[in-house]
Amino acid sequence: MIPKSFEEISIIRDLDSRYFGCLDLSDPKNLEIKSVVQKTVTTIQDDIAFYISKNMIVTHELTSKVFDNNSTGNTPPDDKKLHDVENKVIGFFEEETLAKNQFKNALCKLGHLHLLLGEYSEALSAYQKYLRFNRNNYWKNHEFIYGIGIAYFKLRCFKWAIKSFQELLYLNPNFTCANDVHLRLGFMLKHCGEYHIALKHLQLALLYTYPSTFSELHVKFQIAHLYEVQNKHKAAKKAYEFLLNDKNISLKLRADVYRQLGWMYHCVECLGEKKERESCALTFLQKSIDADPKSGQSLYLLGRCYAGINKVHDAFLAYRNSVEKSEGNADTWCSIGVLYQQQNQPTDALQAYICAVQLDKDHKEAWTNLGILYESCGQLRDAYACYLNATKQASCQKATILRSEDNISMNKDAIGFSKGLSQRIKFLEIQLGQAPLPSITSKRRQLCSIEEAWNLPISLEMNSRQQQTAQMLPRQGPPPPYPHREISESPTPAKRVKDDALNPIYNRSEQDCQDTIQQNKTQYIQFNQNIITTLSTHNLDNVQEGRLISEQSILDSYEYISNDLYTKNTNCKFEPGTILSINNDETSRHLNEDSEYTEFNVSASISDLSQSFKIQMDSKQLLSAVKLLTIEDPPINCTVLQVNTPPPTPPDCPPQKLSRDQLLPPTPSVHLENKKNAFSPQLQEFCLKHPIAVVRGLAGALKLDLGLFSTKTLVEANPDHSVEVRTQVHQSPDENWDTSQAKRVWACISHRSHTTIAKYAQYQASSFQDSLKDENDKGYAGSQIMSDSDSKDSVSNSNITLKRKKHKSSSKMLRFGTNVDLSDERKWKPQLSELQKLPAFARVISAANMLSHVGHVILGMNTVQLYMKVPGSRTPGHQENNNFCSININIGPGDCEWFAVPDAYWGGIHNLCEKNNISYLHGSWWPVLEDLYKENIPVYRFIQKPGDLVWVNAGCVHWVQSVGWCNNIAWNVGPLTARQYSLAIERYEWNKLQAFKSIVPMVHLSWNLARNIKVSDKKLFELIKMCLLQTLKNILHTQEYVKFKGVEIRFNGRGKNDASHYCGQCEVEVFNVLFIKEQEKRHVVHCLSCALKLSPSLQGIVCLEEYRLSELQHVYDSFTLYRTQGLAYTQ
Ligand SMILES: [Zn+2]
């Protein structure tokens, strides 16, 4: 190693990912630092090479270990195989701890330095190698997680960036750059369509009063854009206008706001009359260009607006300017192609489209338009190739991310369009199958083939050509009107394709076929022009633009965030050796070569200390151990799982390969004969033993009066009671199609609204009447209404499938009445008391039910909910809140069909959701069964008849569809078992990482359990005690920290049945120590992290305490393992 000067070493030692965005190495002022950084990069690279060569001989003899790539969720998407040499080195270093530490810290430092130099691929590569060395400990190095997150972000691997950032915030919500992390997460989640969570992160980013690398206005811009992509146009407009009124707005941001506003005026009908909107659009886009003359994006959109009002010349001009400003934009080229095509200049159009698809190989619109162009010239083979490219699934991850907007902004026009496309492809397949290819393409060819066009270097030529054209245009007089506009009213393309397909061309000779094609050419042209017309009037002006803008504005603001934001930052100034200097006083170490790469001594020592916390400690020992913790920094994440544990990840599926039979296991079911059966302990045991169980004949055995829950009785009791309604598409239970009915998907669409019991009852009844009428009209008897048959599940399944087939094509909408709240005892007394007849383990309230120990109502969990259904009503896939068990009774008269997957496989389903770009926790999904079987995931499938109770065990993933007209009632229970408790706690932590609110306050519940019950199950005891330990430690640590900050803690106490508290900002549970801040005249509870975001010194924040410390200490110390001969609640 080359010795460096003291100063150089101290500069390098302090540099890490946290300086990203603060330290601009491209700034001439920082030239000196930059050269030190570059020199160090070379040195480290040399060191690594030196280590490798030095150890080559040793490693050569070591058998290189097989490297486990799948152990954590952080395995990068590509770069999976390590180079041989690296593998051997890793094998060697696993033996040599000391050398390994130095080596891996060097890798991490290398990652940081590359990151600061803006060399993101190099940074990612170094970080990924570091990660391979640190599978088990990487999470203790927060600077590393931040750095790799930024590298992923910069390289647009959003999925991985999101993962890293979520872990970072979970591990340390107070991380120095947490506000940047929130902004980036908000930005990426918005991009991925997870709007709710995106908004949450953006609002958290807005909360910060710390100096940060972006301004408040940038965050507000992102929030305004979030409204825009959700089609909340008025809110978006208001938010944008608000930004324009701010006098601190930068020129660049002003340009962005004007651009978005201009484009909204162009696209959004509710913003006024078309003429006015168009003129506003032009004005705003022009203002945007004035504010930022370099914006190729605004110029492009201006061109689109001109094209929309037939100002072809102006459109060309704007496009040309846009190409000059930002040459690499496929959308611009695509739009230029459309203009040329409309001007009947096919060669120019071809070249423009080729430019588009060369810039973006997955550009669907350009491929489609190009196909149409070829078809109109009779070049079917080329057209076919283009259509195929247009329908091809976006291949790389980047494209998936880019185009995820597609799924969101789906609407009918776009769907019709893609449907037409697949019909075109089928049609061309037939045509091409009949005609030998060369003869079609070689003779009457008007355009060069797709291969030739692809290989021509046309960009430059295109540029000049385009300029010529633009100059020529005025002389050509006004542009021709859109061709054959009136034809768009004529027979639909779909029908035409059908007619064509019926042509008896199969036995014809080659020449005949050619002739047919020629004859049909007129038809094609008409058809094509229909499409072109459709494209230009509908798709381009509305649908596509809607899509394009959301994508492009995101792209644009992405660039915006990633470039502008960080170079113009003025809040953080870099002064070598003074900031963020963790080890400032340890000067002696500066000259120590080995410590040069030592990164995270502080966090390492914290985790060492954490390890000393054990559930065997009493509260006094705990208190003195806490005194040893640092109070300079706020206490970080309080995980209640375990001491010193990595962030949670979804589990891998059980590895054993299942046979086809095992993938379709029989559903555990039991038939009750009488009341004695129902109350036998064996029934509870049976239920607890299986992932899911169906208890048949329960209502009969207990003589439950299900009539109390019939629609008729409900209407008589409370007609005006509120019902949430989900409007859904009626589908066969084992199928889920996208809205165009073109492919099977996971995303399950339903729209939410509200009504009353009386109105829903009316709907339910009329839906039933209508179906009776239908059945009579069709002349077949037997309906799905009453499930009077005694048939076994499998038989009824096949009946359903048969019946469904008939329904499939009609794709009618239905309304599902859901989440009807029956918690009010005054309103629903007879109903609720009837449920007292159930055995204790299934009752809504019982001492053996954890949820009865929460002490307050959690709607729908420890209270009853009702579901009112017509056939096809869907409850999409989910696990219950915090993995609690659930009880579901079918009131009838119709059946329900259930699908269920054991909890051990939830990670597999989670991954499939991710693959389908849908959020496991927030999204609405209906699994494609074949996808599950392919992943070796078993599925229970069964029918629940009236009077049957379904027991959903802890963590079981399930989805349900009604077969007939029926009502269901359901609630959650929490048996006092270690399994239930640990699954609830695991989900509590996973929710925290995903920024998803846990509606069961597990900490509050655990303290109540410790007060109320005696636990004899050792495992359950240890888990609860661990939660108490972790929370008590966190409370003590927080109080020490708050006192250190000079803030007084006031005792507030709490009412007996007060609801537990959640942070008003981030929605984590806040237990015992509450930070109150008045916001908009309301007193809002905050967690410590959010309070610190609002006020780093905690000034202006009131700190309240709910319990006396002595009381908590007493509860903690008194909670001991209850030794008994099986008399406790637990087994
Ligand atoms: Zn919070």
TrEMBL record:
> Which superkingdom?
Eukaryota
One Pfam family, short name: KDM6_GATAL
Region (Disordered), start-end ranges: 467-497, 779-808
Q: Where are the TPR repeats?
A: 104-137, 142-175, 330-363
**Keyword presence, Transferase:** yes
Record key words, sorted: Chromatin regulator, Dioxygenase, Iron, Metal-binding, Methyltransferase, Nucleus, Oxidoreductase, Phosphoprotein, TPR repeat, Transferase, Zinc
Q: Tell whether Membrane is among the UniProt keywords.
A: no
Q: Give GO BP annotations, semicolon-separated.
A: methylation; regulation of gene expression
Q: Where in the cell is it found?
A: Nucleus
Mention one GO molecular function.
chromatin DNA binding
User: What is its cofactor?
Assistant: Fe(2+)
Q: Which residues form the JmjC domain?
A: 827-990
Q: GO CC annotation: what is one?
A: MLL3/4 complex
SUPFAM superfamilies per UniProt: Clavaminate synthase-like, TPR-like
Q: Which family does it belong to?
A: Belongs to the UTX family.
Q: What protein does this entry describe? A: Blast:Lysine-specific demethylase 6A
Say which species the protein is native to.
Drosophila guanche (Fruit fly)
